[in-house]
Amino acid sequence: MSGRDLIENEAGAVVEEQTGADLLRPLVEAPPARLPHAALPGGVVIGELIGMKDEGRTPLVLFPGQHGSAALAARTVVDLHGPHIGRKVVLMFEGADLSRPIVMGVLREDEAWLLADRPGQVEVDADGERLIVSAKEQLVLRCGKASITLTKAGKVLIQGSYVLSRSSGVNRIKGGSVQLN
């Protein structure tokens, strides 16, 4: 007897036996679940990053109001790494489709930078005619073995395996004292 053979049920009526594919068809062909606009305050939902698949390229997320309890594969606009697993993430949904989450960011919560640990700030000002780069303590321009370092104290250090100073006009070296070799 095949899965499509007619069988007689207990009441004596003839019914067609359904296969697993027949039972899943209504779920697969159903329109995607959509969040009502009232359920999207500000257009975002807070979920949780519970893992990564595809060698870290695809985040897996859970969020309130999702259908089922399985994690959903999501796309992301930010770089996510192992330490982000277990953290709250900001989610949006492509076309308001709950099965197509997009991770917009990771919430920082109570982990603000301590003032001493905060990364250095560099200020850049460009007006089309000149570029000004400012730093509080030290500015280093480095390429391979060569570097130019400007310090807060006013020192300019030029280092490299070969340093050339060339001028079509006067090439002056001025200082309180000038040392050669």
CATH architecture of the domain at 37-106: Beta Barrel
Order of helices and strands: EEHEEEEEEEEEEE
Return the average pLDDT rounded to an integer: 78
Say which CATH homologous superfamily of the domain at 37-106 is assigned: Nucleic acid-binding proteins
Strand content: 25-35%
In the CATH hierarchy, the third-tier topology of the domain at 37-106 is known as OB fold (Dihydrolipoamide Acetyltransferase, E2P)
Record field, number of beta strands? 13
Uncertain runs: 1-5
- From the N-terminal CA to the C-terminal CA, the straight-line distance is 100 Å
Write down the Rg. Answer: 32 Å
In terms of structural class, how would the helical and strand content be classed? mainly beta
Q: State the share of residues found in helices, binned by percent.
A: under 10%
Number of helices: 1
Biggest beta sheet attributes: 6 strands, mixed
Look at the structure and give the CATH class of the domain at 37-106.
Mainly Beta
Any overview of this molecule?
- By secondary structure, this protein is mostly beta strands.
- Among the domains are: 37-106, OB fold (Dihydrolipoamide Acetyltransferase, E2P) (Beta Barrel); 123-159, no CATH class.
- The protein is built from one helix and 13 strands; from the N terminus they run ββαβββββββββββ.
- Strands 5-4-3-7-8-6 form a six-stranded mixed sheet, with no helix packed on it.
- The longest helix is centred in the first third of the chain and has 10 residues, at 20-29.
- It is rod-shaped and about 100 Å long.
- The N and C termini lie far apart (100 Å).
- Residues 1-5 have low confidence and may be disordered.
